[in-house]
Amino acid sequence: MQDSYFKHLLKRLSHRSRKKKFGLLHAIFHPRPEDRVLDIGASGEVFLRYAFEDVYPYPERIVAGGYELREVSSARHYYPRPRYAVFDGCALPFPDKSFDLVFSNAVIEHVLGEARQARFAQEIMRVGKSWFVTTPNYWYPFESHYHLPFIQFLPRPLRREYNRLFGTHIPKGTVQELSLLSGRQLRRLFPTSRIARVRVTFWPETLVAYYVDPGRQIAPAGLRRISFA
Predict the structure, then answer these.
(1) Which residues partner with 200 through β-bridges?
(2) Most exposed among 14, 62, 103, 155, judged by the fewest C-beta atoms under 10 Å?
(3) Which domains, from first to last, does the chain contain?
């Protein structure tokens, strides 16, 4: 009973967080029917029924994809209106500034190694005129992949043992390799971006690096302030 309540609570908080992130995206970007959009990390297996493709008003203008054929195929099954491609986010097969917006939700922390993370960020900035990149906050005490508190601060052998004893989400006794980022690290990867801190609990759970093409209409100042709360 307690376990099911805990999972229900996490699901509810995740939904609130995604709703707030999507609200921020719409407030600052103002989607237009002619915009061409790239979604890096599309999946029909993760965040099903509240993915970017569920809320973006012009899904036929999305090119969605990622590295795993299985996840891209599942996304195509559940969301047939966008176009799909399999690609490496660190070597995107698109020309410079070919998308009005590049969206990526909770992908960059799975790109391992400083050099590859930097390349991932550079590719987003290369192909996008604007971008909106989210990632869990390294300093938030509850780690969202393991569903365990403080585990990201432990050395690898202790993470394995901690997960063996208390893990409920990642298979017990295993370690999921992650490259979680702080706000400062995210700013270094996206130096021309603003960094928003999205909070639905007591501390910002999510960081967002975003940049809006100066040629687009800018959201009113009041909307920008509300979105950071």
Answers:
(1) none
(2) 155
(3) 2-138+180-227 (3.40.50.150), 140-179 (no CATH)
d(CA 94, CA 220): 32
Distance (Å, rounded) from C-alpha 229 to C-alpha 17?
12
Distance (Å, rounded) from C-alpha 208 to C-alpha 42?
18
Q: Degrees (nearest 5) of the Cα angle 176, 7, 183? A: 50
Distance CA 119, CA 135 (A): 16
**Long-range residue pairs from 48-51, CB within 8 A, at least 24 positions apart, any chain:** 48/78, 50/15, 50/18, 50/19, 51/75, 51/79
Contact 35, 57 (CB under 8 A): no
Nearest of 57, 62, 98, 100 to residue 216 by alpha carbon: 100
Contact assessment for residue 195 and residue 132, using Cβ atoms and an 8 Å cutoff: no
Quote the tokens at residue 35.
């915009």
Structure tokens given for 124? 């987003």
Per-residue pLDDT tens over the stretch 7-61: 777 778 788 888 899 999 999 999 999 999 999 999 887 766 778 999 999 999 9
Edge-first strand order for the sheet with 62-66 is 83-86, 62-66, 37-40, 101-105, 131-136, 206-211, 194-198
**Nearest CA to 64 among 92, 90, 32?**
92
